[in-house]
Structure formats: C-alpha cells, structure tokens
Amino acid sequence: MGNPVIEIIQMSKSYELGGETVKALQEVSLLIHEGDFLSIIGPSGSGKSTFMNMIGCLDKPDSGDYLLDGKKVNNMKEHELAGIRNVKIGFIFQNFNLLNKLTALENVELPLVYRGLSVKERREKAINSLERVGLGERIHHMPTQLSGGQQQRVAIARALAGDPPVLLADEPTGALDSKTSKELLEMLKELNKRGQTIVIITHDLEVAKETNRIVRIHDGQLYENGGDWFEPSRIYQNGTQEYQEQ
Amino acid sequence: MNLVESIKMALKSIKSNKIRAILTMLGIIIGVASVITLVGVGQGSSQSVTEEIGSLGTNLITLSVNDTESVQLKDDQILEFQELNGISEVAPVVTGRINAKNQENTAQVSITGTTASYLSVRNLILSQGRFITDMDDELRQKVVVLGSTTADTLFPYENPVGQSVQIEGVSFQVVGVLESVGTSLGTSGDNVIIAPLSTTQRITQSTAIGTVYFQAESEDYVNRAMFQVQGVMTTLFPNSSDYYSVSSQEDLMETMTSVSDTMTLMLGGIASISLLVGGIGIMNIMLVSVSERTKEIGIRKAIGANRKSILLQFLIEAVVLSTLGGLIGVVIGLGVSKLMEIFSSITISYSPSVTLLAFLFSLLIGVVFGVFPANKASKLNPIQALRQE
Asked: Which of B83, B196, B219, B380 is spaced 20 to 30 A from A175 at the CA atom?
C-alpha cells in the first residue's frame, strides 16, 4: 500500500439554501492511498457534489483538516488553491468541459500553460498525454469534431497532462452510452494499474462496482463498502488512529 | 503564465468572434480617426492663417480707428507719420460700400480710398494697367483699380482697363486690375474697388480715415515704428487712446494662432469624447463576454487558473481590442486627412505627437474600461461558474 494521498479529517461544510442551513458534510473523514481506485457513490442531495468540491479544492471546508499529497490545504488562500488544483488534481467532468474554441491539443495544454511551462515542454507533455488515451492522431481536431467518448478521452488527457497525484472524475460516464462508458472505465482501470490514484464521484452503482473501493455518501456522512451499504466506514478518528484496510 | 501567452490567447478569442470584435473596436476606431483628422484640420488652419498673415508682410503696422467721431485723422496729419524714422510708406485708407455698375452688370463692393503707397504696403500686384498715383489723389481724378473678382463681374467679356464704370451714378475710368489675392481670414480680397483717397471721401461723403497702414523699413524697426506711431497719435489726440489701436502683423498672428489653437483644442476635445464613448462600448462588450464565458472561466479556474490569470486574460483582451482599434483608427485618420487634403482646399497638418497621443489614449481606455469586467470575471466562483451552461 502506498502513502496517503488524501487525508480528510472530520471535515464539515454547511451552506444556506432558501433560508435554511443545509449540513452538506458532517464531520466526514476519509483516507485515500496512492494507487487507490475509489468511488464515492450517493444520490443527489447526499452531499456528493460538496464533497467533490472539497476534494477538488474548489471549495473550503467550515471545519476539519484536509491534507492533499502531504500538504494541508484547508486554510489555503484562493490563489494557492488554484495552484494546488493545477498541480495536484486532474479533473474529469461529466460533460467533458472542454473549451470548444481550442483544439484537442490546446485543451490538453491549458493546465500546463497555467503552470508556466515553456511552449516546447507543454506541447511534448500534451502530445504524450493524448497518445496515452489513444488520440495521438486527432490532436488538432476541435472538440466538436470528436465523438463524446473521444471528447472525454481528451478530458482525461488534459487531467493526466500535468501528472497529478489524484485524478478526480465527476460522473465521467454520465454523458456517454454504455459501450463507450465501458471503454472509458477500462481506460481508467488501466491507468490505475499503472499506479494512478483515481477517485470517481457517481450515482451509478454499475460504475462504482468497477472500482476497487466504494465509499457511500448519505446525508452528509460517509459509509465504507463492506457488504452492507450502510455500515459505517472504518474511518480514523481525529486523525490519530491509522486507517486499516480490511 | 506570461504576457505573450496571454496576448496570444486574447487574439485567439477575438478572432473567434470577428464581427463583434470589429463592432466593439468601431467606437475606438472612429474616436482615434476623428481625433487625428480634426486636430489635423485645426492645426492646418492655424498654420495656413499664420502663413497668410506672414505673406501680407511682417513689416506691416496697422493703425485702426474704432471711433472716427473722436479721432478724426486729417490728410495733413497723415503727413506727420511720413516723417517718422523707420517708416518707409504710409497708406491712409477710407472705406465704404458702394454700388458699381457697367451697363447691366452691377456689383455691391467695398471701395477703398487710398494713396499710391497702398500697393507696396499691402504687397499687391497688378495684373494689368497701373495703380493709383499721388497725382490722381491730388487732382481728385475719377479713376479706379478693380479687384480681380470685381473686374470679372463688371466686365465678363472685355478688358476693363480703359473702360468706365458707374459708381453711385458717377462715371469712373478703370486704370488697372489687381491680381487675385485669394480669400484671407474669411473675406475675399478680390471683391474690391480701389480709388484715390480724395475721390473716395467725396463719393462716400465721409472724410474719416478709418485705417492707416505703415510699412516699417525692416522687421527690426517694427516695434520702434509702432512706438513712434503711438507717440504721434498721443500728441494729436491726447486722452483718446481707447479710440484707436496700433498693431503689427505679429500681434494679429498671435491672436489668430490663439483662436485656432482654441479651435483645435475644442475639436480634439469633442473627438476625445467619442473615444471615451468607444471605451464604454468596450466595457459593455467585455461584460457581455464575461457572462457568456462564465463556463469557460469555471473550467479554467478548475484546472488551475488563478484570479490573476483570469484578470489578465480579460484585461489583455480589452487592451488588445482597443489597441487594434487604435491602430486601425490611426490608419483611417491619416487616410481621411490625406483624402481631405486632396479633394478639398483645406490645409491639414499631420502631427505625429497627436497621432501617438490618440493611440496611447486608446490603449489607456482599454485598460481603464477593461479592468471592471476583468475583475468581475476573476472573482467568479469556480463551482457556480462550472454549473452554468
């Protein structure tokens, strides 16, 4: 087992919605190791999106600690979080979220542009990344000239281009047909086999089943996979007790 | 992310929406072009006025009487000026409006009653015939010299020299015709009749000498000569200095230059306002662009763009728009000035400093009006921005 990549300790988050305070996350704790292939599954309104935003450093928790790749990020300022997102997280979105005015290559290059790499360096990395997802032939295509599956592969290439420790996929198959979904999941599995830590957020059990570890989120609390869906996760308490895998 | 990258990105984004970009730039284009053209027109007219006044001779000193009741210059008093040091010529002038007639051709013109020295004092040239002589004046001869326009009006088909014209019912003989002097300061110098001083005084029934022109011996003597003219006037008409004024061409030049400078400033100011309006147009479009591209901003932020990068991206886009507009405006402005110069008689002077200033101003406008939308974009919450469709 690898080193911990994500350590979330008693994280809480609530927000106002229509005058009511919604407790989206209630003191959740989660440990993810290097090389994990994990899915977080839950219905809408379970706090799934909030949790994803937390893991993805798009939002800050009200309380609790978050260590990403050994760095404490929960107190970071906005521009520091942007830097963390750029280096530590590779995002894959449900509807691909590619920039339609840029070519596949330029889309993949984008995170590297923000990282400040030279033109040559980032071109090399982006082409390499596109080749890894099997799109080496289509680097100059616009997203609109590609099929849904190909677009999602471009998105994966973009996520992988910066060699982030964590790949965070939000409903990656949500906009794809079942055959393409299967191919995509195979690709993610393949990436995981080579050591890539992957976290999938989904509401689809079929997708979750493909991963090595399933964490269920329900009413702002986490439950670990262990036969019964609702068996509480063996989470480590207050960050003192080391997480044990079954 | 460095500046070159940002500029490339901005150009790409502008290229993907060309029509909008052009419409946005239009305000700046028109602003810069009009600043350059209008200031060119203003400075050109100022320059041509200066040249015109200069062509009248910088040795010219003018004594103009505002109140001919209080200051009645007599012919013999004029002689006193002639004896002054540093003054080579003196030409007293009496003016009036008269009707001139040659058979069915008539003209309402101004008559200038003066002496022989008028020709050289005012730098006039005869195209034919002769000018009035001192003898004509002394003998009150009924002779006239016609301005070129007057000559054309009264004698469209024949040589006027030797012919006679009816002025206020009295027959005059035409002895000469002046060469055209063109329009000067808005009044035509060709629509005149020049007659001997004494004759004119009788025709217009006014002995009042309204103006006396002096020619200084050289430019260096102008100030001294003016001073002496003042001195003579003070002796002749004590305590009446409010009723006459003595001025040189230099004074006139200064006045005219200040007038046209004010005009230039005004034209430039009006044009600058259109530049400002163009800037507001840029801000407007940039704000629309920010709300249209909310999703894009969300994506960029999610994959690691910080606030500064987003701010810079939109700011540079605004600056690139305004700078491009400014450049096109400079080209159009210079082109329009050139065309105006070719197709009209207006003198237009190019001013590199005004061109540069207008261009820099357009750049500044891009920055000023780009900051607000860019700041708005940079402050977007990535989560909400991503949710936007």
From this structure: B380
Q: Does A172 touch chain B (CB under 8 A)?
A: no
The residue written with tokens 């004594």 in the block is: B63
The arithmetic mean of pLDDT across residues B3-17, rounded, is 83
Residue of B12, B299, B307 with shortest CB distance to A79: B307
Minimal CA separation from B306 to chain A, in Å: 5
Is A83 in Cβ contact with B306 (below 8 Å)? yes
Backbone angles phi, psi at A32, to 5 degrees: -125, 130
pLDDT tens profile A111-167: 999 998 888 999 999 999 999 999 989 999 999 999 999 999 999 999 999 899 999
ipTM of the modeled complex: 0.88
Which residue of chain B is at minimal alpha-carbon distance from A97? B299
> By CA distance, what is B383's nearest residue in A?
A58
A91/B300 Cβ within 8 A: no
pLDDT in tens, B316-348: 999 999 999 999 999 999 999 999 888 887 788
Contacting residues of A for B16, CB less than 8 Å apart: 101
CB A40 within 8 A of CB A201: yes
pLDDT in tens, A16-63: 888 888 899 998 989 999 999 999 998 888 888 899 999 999 999 999
Indicate the range of A216-230, B88-102, B145-159, B325-339 predicted with least confidence: A216-230
Give whole-number Cα distances, A177 to A38, A189, A209, B130, in Å.
22, 18, 17, 106
